[in-house]
Design a protein that fits this description.
single chain; 92 residues; mainly alpha; 434 Repressor (Amino-terminal Domain); globular
Length: 92
Amino acid sequence: MKAGVTSSEKIPGITRDVALAAGDRIMSAADLGKVIRARRKELGYTQIEVAEMMECSPRLVGEIERGRGSVGFDRIVSYAMNLGIDLAAFKR
């Protein structure tokens, strides 16, 4: 979902069921951290390299990947987007 697209707008061809079938269901910060860590490794980046790209500490990168609740949501979204992970929310 592109920035600025409201939740009430529909993306052609994408339904909640299709999106859930294609991706990982996120039920906690730890679930999202696992997805982010897997993508980082898939791209061949170390936590130090990602920290340099995000201009933060490697410790923060590790906290995001472990799903620590003390990490700001904006930082988590930024990290995911930098790795090419799109986040979307659907009504149940």
